[in-house]
Amino acid sequence: MRSIYLLSSLAFLSSTHCQSPSSKRGLVYVPKDHPSDDGLWDSTSSDLTWYYNYGSTPSPAYDNSTKLQFVPMLWGAPPTTNDTTFLDDVKAQIKGGANITYVMTFNEPDGTSSTGGSGVDSETAAEIWINEVEPLKKDGVKLGAPAVTGAPTGFTWLQQFFTACNGKCNPDFISVHWYGNFEGLASHVGQVRGTYPNMTIWVTEYADNDVDLVDSESFYNQSSQFFDRIDYITHYSYFGAFRSSDSNVGPNAAMLTQTGKLTDIGSWYLGGSETGNTPKGAAARNTIFAGSSIFIFMASVWCLL
To answer: How far apart are CA 224 and CA 222, in angstroms?
Structure first.
């Protein structure tokens, strides 16, 4: 029994502290008052290949990037439903030679402004999509379904959205947001896949918010290994590209310390090794549950079914 426990522990710890490169990883760019941090995500050692900034035009910090592909986003509802600002912005970038092959739409429309949601009703969103998003298919752009919250209201909103679209909204992938533990994440991804089997999945915001450092790091490693194994998950972007002192999901989820140094999660996400840099307010590491590696395997098998 003891030997089995030790083997499980060693297997989990080795996977926890070693990260493989992944072309699926992207950047959720949230500008803060530390422009010097921006270069970390686009450095020669960075593993990231794409980014979004919740807007329709690129961020000046990455105007000259040769690594990070920009993905425009229609965050919420424009002033009027016949407004074409988003469509015009994207078309102008394509005409100018930019590599725009994907767009994302509607950030947490079932949520409220107090939690970062765009608060757009499903019928209005459908009308806007048909006017501003669907035409981009003619330019070869792949379209992302609205990025609803991980709450049950998200599924209800999406169902109402597609009903209102009446066959005129044809996304290629669906964006997933999740805040909570890995068990919940794996279950949610499986539910999304079961509901929309003809779309690939992008996990465009995720973190285990407001937990201790051990749980935060364990969640990060479990989820990234899980995403990299699942072929229908083609892109993912961890919500934590900021300093721990700026984090609204808890200091331990941040990829940078309060002084701008890469945390273990930050370094792992870029394809590096652990740094030992502890975010402000984080507790010391404790022993990690040895059985977690078994759960990761079981969850991945469940989602593939």
So the answer is: 6
Q: In whole angstroms, give the CA distance from residue 224 to residue 152.
A: 24
Task: State the Cα–Cα distance between residues 100 and 105, nearest whole angstrom.
Answer: 14
Looking at residue 69, the DSSP 8-state letter turns out to be E
Q: How far apart are CA 181 and CA 191, in angstroms?
A: 16
Given a contact cutoff of 8 angstroms between Cβ atoms, the answer to whether 215 and 208 are in contact is yes
Other Cβ atoms within 10 Å of 97 Cβ, number: 7
User: What's the rounded Cα separation, in Å, for the pair 129 and 142?
Assistant: 13
* Distance separating alpha carbons of residues 182 and 12, to the nearest angstrom: 15
Taken in order 274, 276, 279, 281, the sign of the CA dihedral is positive
Judging by beta carbons within 10 Å of its beta carbon (0-12, 13-18, 19+), is residue 99 exposed, middle or buried?
exposed
Q: How many helices (H) and strands (E) does the chain have?
A: 8, 9
Q: Are strands 26-28 and 173-179 parallel, antiparallel or unpaired?
A: unpaired
Q: Residue 228 in 3-state DSSP?
A: helix
Q: What is the DSSP letter of 256?
A: B
Quick one: pLDDT at residue 274? 94
Q: Are 255 and 263 in contact (CB under 8 A)?
A: yes
pLDDT in tens, 17-66: 556 789 999 999 998 899 999 999 999 999 999 999 999 999 999 999 99
Q: Please report which residue ranges of 140-261 form alpha helices under DSSP H.
A: 152-165, 182-195, 213-229
Confidence tier at 102 by pLDDT (50, 70, 90): very high
Using CA atoms, how far residue 284 sits from 86, 231, 287, in Å, is: 46, 35, 10
How far is 47 from 44, CA to CA, in rounded Å?
8
